[in-house]
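pasting for ref
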Amino acid sequence: MKYLLTIVITFIVTMATGQDTLQYEIGDVVISENRIQIPFSDNSRTISIITKQEIQELNSSSINELLQNVGGVDIRQRGVHGVQGDLSIRGGTFEQALVLINGIKMIDPQTGHFMMNLPVSVNDIERIEVLKGPAARVFGQNAFAGAINIITKTPQEQEAELEVEYGENKLVNVFAGISLPIGNYKQRISASHSQSDGYRFNSDYKISNVFYQSQIDIKKAKLQLYGGHTDRKFGANGFYGRETFVDQYEEVRTTFASAQLHSNISDWKVITKANWRHNKDNWQFMREDPEFFQNFHTTNVYNGESHFTRDHKLGIFGIGAEVNHIRLSSSNLKDSEGSGDHNRTQTSVHIENRFLLADDVIDITPGILLLDISDIGFEVFPGLDIGYRVNNVFKVYSNIGWTMRIPSFTELYYRDSGNVGNPSLTEERAFTYEIGAKYNPKGLLLQASIFARSASDQIDWTLITIDSTEKWMPSNFNNATYRGLDISAKKYFSKNNGIKSIHVAYTYIDATFDNTSLMPSRNQLENLKHQLILGTNLHYGGLNLNLNFRYNDRVTLENYSLVDSHLSYQFGQYTFSVRANNLLGTTYRETNLVEMPGRWVMGGVRYYL
């Protein structure tokens, strides 16, 4: 740990004392929460932002790969290039984080494994906001350990782009997008397809995405429409249950649509949303013999919400309401009466007020979420953010919050030869706090925080013996405390040639469990203990080189180091590129079931009009 901290501190000192910084401002970026929206520099939370510029430099093939470069975020991939990845924030499980697209929740009540089934291409993204820590009063009960909000590009001018990439293992990536703003009507549509024969037996995949968005400006209002569909077919060698289940296969189709109206009514700013998310899953235990054992699941989530904010002498007041209805039909997830049909309705009201005191030097934001769940009952989630602005570029802050997560229907009812659900599960609960600081002059961003999460009744799958057969079953098997340190720094330089940017992030997590008698655990004991991320972007003329290093030290798996590289050359309207994932050919696992690929090289060309 001392060695890693020495590296981080050396980088930060070098970055903080360097000269010739680019006039780069992240402080004015407004964080797109559903409630009170606050510029990044004024927010009293730990938030990491992947900017549009960084997305272009990284040139990742999936959102999963982008998020791997954010400190405190752990993407545990089973399938490569976005096929399937489980999202973890600050040591939480893949069920304890929330993903949103433009504020639209991508919750899947069947299983958190589908959280990252997103129809959005990397080329469609304006920025990604990563909120670490308690987010229940902001986004609802599933934001247990944090939330990620993906903001897509609003088309401002007519443009078109086409990208084709080819790589090892018969990898083919194709993307096409077009933006056609006409007066007050702005719209963009894109489509992409990715496929590969895979890097080992039964790891082939085909992924197709379509995404559409538009915005209509109407006097003092704007109407935004979003829609997307993703179709995924992949060999799931060892994805679920046991490493020996090598013949598994899965097809998942996810569709979502949303209409959002942003308007002003007297002194109130109003955001009204109506969303729908549909997911259809077919899993087969034996790909060549589907009838041997397979599952069918269909999920529909309907959501409506309205949020109202108003400025006043002491700050900003916010209030709103949300109704969420879930319908699930499954051939496997059956209750005690043998029914695979499940319904759940959640109704919530939130109230918060941001007080600005001492000429805006001090901000205090208390808030509360009142939630009624049809099959659980009434719940209350309070929270509090406090910040003190030392000067225009330096701020210290602290926040606390209470969170909860409802068991997924897979955890409650799933059943096959190697797994059995547990209908007696209760909700996971946690209390979280953090203390942090951010320093954000032009061209530089430093953030540091210490955090702690005290969780009770945590759920995970553990091995038990039923009728002399070992099976995985979820249980509320422990109480846990997570304590950690989160440090990150980014610096941008104004030189035309040479180093264009540097970033470094280090996260330390100490997880202690009060009761680990039910062992081994499938997910919770795979959390990161140490995570170090280093990256730089080098530029010379039309040539651009991006290098990223990641070191991950997991609690129960072997630690590993990875290097990814991206070399590109821009010539007029064309950009030629070569990427190498896992450049050093490291052998590693991000979960206990799937060995990840070695070096994977791919090259492509992008045409921009």
